[in-house]
Amino acid sequence: MVSNKEFIQRLVKVCEIKHIKHVVFSPGSRNAPLVISFVENPNFECITIPDERVAAFFAMGMALHLDEPVIICCTSGSAALNYAPAIVEAYYQKIPLLVLTADRPIEWIDQGAGQTMRQKNVYSNYIKGSFELIQEAQQLQDLRHNDRMVCEAINLANNPCKGPVHINVPLSEPLYGVVEPKEFDNLQMVNAHPSDISIREAEREIIKSIWKKAERKLIIFGQSKPNKQTDILLEKIAQDPSVAIISETCSNRYATPYNPCIDRLITTIKDGDVDTYKPDIVVSLGDAVISKKIKAMIRKYHPKEHWYVNEQEQAQDTFLALTKHIRSTESAFLSVISDLKTDSQYSATWHDKHLNTKSRHQAFIKQCEWSDLLAFHHILKTVPANTDLHLGNSSPIRYAQLFDQRQNLNYFCNRGVSGIDGSTSTAAGAAFASNRMTTIVTGDMAFFYDSNALWNHHLPKNLRIVMVNNGGGGIFKIIPGPKTTNQYKEFFATEQQYSAEYIAKAFGCPYYKVDEAYNLSNYLKMFYEEDFDKPPILEVVTSHVENEKVLGDYFEYLIGG
Questions:
Q1: CB-CB contact of 235 with 255 (8 Å)
Q2: Angle, nearest 10°, between helix axes 547-559 and 372-382?
Q3: What share of the chain is helix, strand, coil (3-state, %, to 5)?
Q4: Which terminus of the chain has fewer CB atoms gathered within 10 Å of its CB, N or C?
């Protein structure tokens, strides 16, 4: 039995034909027709998560792994607003979500009806498209109009740059009526056949000409998913002595010779070395660039050319030097320059700096006292091969940037908008969809903020949660500024003395606590070797340590001071 509202039956059928398979509901009453119709259709895997914010990030994690739209569906009112953090993150990460918000009848908006607000276009600033179905459509032309909107929304979520789309669904009572499923021979299906975004031949020749003449080319890879075709081309380009490639942890890019750990590397370049490292051309590939240091450096050097290579329509002038927006896939662009070489020492200059900095990094770690830095050293080297590693925002991702990437890991972080909300929920959703060993390394503030991620009957056994508890917002102890104010402890670092122990107990998750390096190594080994019914939580305590001093000493040592 399915909802007796035909326009809802048709919506579900369109989603089925469009090969959407997963729906994450949050409980409510107004979305009952959608719940009934999706759950009763065996072509959909439907789950429910009570907290809408968690549900949306969980679905985003699923879509991140599956690379296909996942539906999130909630009741009317403020429930829809709780989706907003995940929707904006998905928008900037280009992750496809189909957002279905049930709504009260249009005539009751702003009329004092309960659980009612203006839901149409509610995500207008950070959504690929917003649609509203014709309320209680019954005439064939209205039903087909709704069909077309659902098709358009799904097409938009998928191509050419993926992202979230919103369909608002006004529903009148009664909501729980059911009928036998109906077969439809008059659905209005609209299919999209996107053409590849290609570089025109004339533009290819211009790119080649400029590229060949330049003796110092710097390729910067931001956040990106693993891609074998890109890696093959990048490996070929890395053999050009005039090309230096630097990558961030979440770029998932490797080429020999390559230069990871941007922050670690840039720190050691002194002002007097500007002419040695200054590029003629900067090419930025991938999405978000985490490192503030590389942004500041390129803005200061101001190269002659900055080429932004991305499929999206809008260019990003990240380095205040943009000269060319090349709408292209990474692979298509790299294939244009893959056979070109120019005599130069530029690649060797960067790589020698990387090797020297890496050597000093290793020497410091050997004598490093217990701290966030040493904890991350042990955590990152112990994560098993073939793990999907999710990193929380603020301190965790920045510490991870100081350690060489491992080619046998896949790195992820919510760097679309870079909020601390939803890191654990995203990792849980990705683990649920992938069945791969998945680890989230998060800070205490992000963990507590997203603790409702554990209020979830679908937490996968293949998820491991590592929480580094340094007693507050560690990032505010690192960045310049906050510590100079009278409001530092309470309003910036928000120092706290809470533990994850009783949160873990409340949700039945195994819990372990360590506060020194030897125990951390032992617990990490057990963490991955044992089988658990629920995701275990390992709390790594460094709150009694002056982590900012250790990090400051680390950077001074790298520089050689």
A1: yes
A2: 80
A3: 40, 15, 40
A4: C
